[in-house]
Amino acid sequence: MNSEALLGLSLIALSVSAGQVTMATEEKPKGFVEGCGLTILNRNLYFNRDFRKGQASRTGNGYSEE
Predict the structure, then answer these.
(1) 58: Cβ contacts below 8 Å, ≥ 6 apart
(2) How far is 57 from 60, CA to CA, in rounded Å?
(3) Rounded to whole angstroms, how far apart are CA atoms 34 and 4?
(4) pTM above 0.70?
(5) How many CA within 13 A on the CB side of residue 4?
């Protein structure tokens, strides 16, 4: 055999064995309850709507006009 054919066969053998290793390390599928998860994202926002200077506002009563 020449070196190119030997290289080709070794690459084929390597790819087949690598595929078998990944199949062996693959996890078993989990059931509905075992495989479930929950992620909670909580974002608090504060809007400064302090209108204590009532006479300085356009409405004159200390409230914002919406």
Answers:
(1) 65
(2) 5
(3) 50
(4) no
(5) 0
Q: Are 49 and 64 in contact (CB under 8 A)?
A: yes
Cα gap 41→47, rounded to integer Å:
20
Cα separation of 36 and 30, whole Å? 9
Question: CB-based contacts of 63: which residues, under 8 Å, 6+ apart?
Answer: 51, 54, 57
Write the Ramachandran bin of 62: left for phi over 0, alpha for psi from -120 to 50, otherwise beta: left
Tens of pLDDT, residues 6-65 = 777 777 877 766 666 555 566 677 777 777 888 888 888 777 666 666 555 565 565 665
Q: Which one-letter amino acid corresponds to residue 47? A: F
CA-based nearest residue to 61, from 52, 1, 39: 52
